[in-house]
Amino acid sequence: MTLLRTMALTKTVASGDAPLTILDDVTFEVARGDTVAIVGASGSGKTTLLGLLAGLDLPTSGDVWLDGEHVTSLDEDARAALRRRAVGFVFQSFQLLPAMTALENAMLPLELAGSRDARATAQDWLARVGLAHRMTHYPRQLSGGEQQRVAIARAFASDPMLLFADEPSGNLDQATGAEVAELMFRLNREHGTTLVLVTHDTMLASRCTRRLSLAAGRLVADERVS
Q1: What is the mean pLDDT of the chain?
Q2: Exposed, middle or buried: residue 171 (CB in 10 Å: 0-12, 13-18, 19+)?
Q3: How is the beta sheet containing 69-70 ordered, strand by strand?
Q4: Which position among 52, 152, 154, 178 has the lowest Cβ density within 10 Å, counted as fewest Cβ atoms?
Q5: H/E element, 137
Q6: Hey, which bits of 42-112 come out as E strands?
Q7: pTM of the shown model
């Protein structure tokens, strides 16, 4: 069953005398529970595509549907509400708030969504990612791998249908990156969360069931990975 769908997705921006096309006529579907790697050289449009899929930005033309909702026709507030309901994020730079503890960072999206069990849920997820003993530590007191584990706990705590990950191992050494990848894929299997990730890491991409390749803003390959 399709969870995410794009149709003729195009993004252009002003650049000197002529517009610059960042994405050009990108069309694909993602099934529920799938794991999809978006790959391509720097500047190929990967992160821009992720932002359009999540409704963080709007295309110049084309359409995105997420869980049956026409994302590109929603206003900013409605897109934000859809993200709170259905989407989790993991970023290369972790995006943790430095003045908050690991627990407070993991609780934040739950509190914003009005959850009555925000603390207990966040504590449970931090324990699942191996940080039961680090909940009261601040980001500056955590290693890069531990910070990314907090980010993963925060993303999964709201029980998203879809997890977007942008270079999730990009700021980590190889061994730590492999541990974080294993954690993401294990949680994907256990919870049926659809995973769409942007990565330069060929090993990470090979763990996905599908690979979308971008070049100069165009979708040049859509491959099932055995």
Answers
A1: 92
A2: middle
A3: 20-31, 2-13, 61-66, 69-70
A4: 178
A5: none
A6: 61-66, 69-70, 87-91
A7: 0.89
